[in-house]
Specification:
- It is a single chain.
- Helices cover 46% and strands 12% of the residues.
- The chain is an alpha/beta fold.
- It has one domain: Aldolase class I (TIM Barrel), CATH 3.20.20.70.
- It has an eight-stranded parallel beta barrel with strand order 1-2-3-4-5-6-7-8, surrounded by five helices.
- Helix 3 packs across helix 4 and helix 4 runs parallel beside helix 6.
- The radius of gyration is 18 Å and the shape is globular.
């Protein structure tokens, strides 16, 4: 059986939309190529930074098909398949597997508060059993500050034990170092279970703890810088490399702007395509003044 393990730097790819808010597929395909050529090991289509939950299943599957048909290798793609409805998550995940994609990144069911580990296990198990394909590699998405549903180490360990190989890892976007290190303990007990951090700001710590890499929104705008850190995490100056990767993220966060909208403005500036700055509701486009202030801040020299 082919090695389907995942390691490296992945961009949760931003999704360009046209004035009518449909996906701009030519721009999308061009951007996917740009990211892979820029240093990403692979792409996560329809993650958080992709505005995934603002697109229906049919739109998401059609976009995945278009990207693959355009020649982007399916084995360099992980597909975000999170959905509140289990049937929709199964359909999205099955589509990704049948298309030959490397894996799926799946949110827990959201909306209901205080869901128990028992309920979460039932939900993820229903998705895995529903896809019913040995090629499935599911990465569980831990982003409690957005989903409202935390994934405990005990739950992940139980899934890894019940579904070896299929339960392939976790993306931790909590931003908390202790949480990340706690997930490494799950990986040590479950060979083949990979831990990805959701911010390049923790990439060095994740690699030092045996993690698989990062799935980072900032990889949309500086993939080569993050790739350099990944490739050189054992170098004597690794800490300095980590500090350099943090600079642009901190500049955006300090601005108080919505991260996705800000990243799209940066891509619009990098590509010379103003339409890239457009977001889908409920997000709101940055004003011309906000765009100018952001780009001015980012034009300052990077701290050494």
């Amino acid at each position: 059986m082919a090695d389907l393990s995942l390691r490296g730097v992945f961009a949760p790819t931003l999704t360009p939309v046209q004035a009518d808010l449909t996906i701009d597929l030519p721009a999308y395909i061009e951007f996917c190529r740009r990211l892979l050529e820029g240093g990403c090991h692979g792409l996560v289509l329809f993650g958080t930074n992709s505005e995934a939950t603002s697109f229906c299943a049919a739109e998401r599957m059609a976009a995945v098909d278009a990207v693959i048909e355009a020649g982007i290798p399916a084995d360099r793609l992980v597909i975000g398949t999170g959905a509140a409805a289990i049937t929709e998550a199964v359909a999205l995940s099955r589509h990704a597997v049948q298309a030959g994609c490397r894996g799926v990144l799946t949110l827990p069911p959201f909306y209901y508060p205080n869901v128990s580990d028992k309920g979460l296990f039932r939900s993820f198990a229903a998705i895995i059993d529903g896809v019913n394909d040995e090629r499935l590699r599911i990465y569980f998405y831990h982003i409690p500050q957005v989903s409202g549903v935390p994934l405990s180490p005990a739950l992940l360990a139980r899934l890894a034990e019940a579904y070896p190989r299929l339960a392939a890892g976790v993306k931790d976007s909590s931003g908390d170092v202790d949480t990340l290190l706690g997930l490494h303990a799950v990986a040590r007990q479950s060979p083949g279970f990979a831990v990805f951090c959701g911010t390049e700001g923790l990439l060095l710590k994740n690699m030092q703890g045996g993690g698989g890499g990062c799935i980072s929104g900032m990889a949309n705008v500086l993939p080569h810088v993050i790739r350099d850190l990944y490739d050189n995490w054992q170098a004597p100056d690794a800490e300095e490399r980590q500090d350099r990767t943090n600079w642009i993220r901190n500049a955006i966060l300090d601005s108080g702007l919505n991260m996705i909208a800000a990243l799209k403005v940066i891509v619009a500036d990098q590509t010379g395509r103003p339409g890239w700055s457009r977001v889908r509701p409920p997000l709101v486009d940055l004003t011309e003044e906000e765009q100018a202030q952001l780009l001015a801040k980012l034009s300052q020299p990077v701290a050494a």
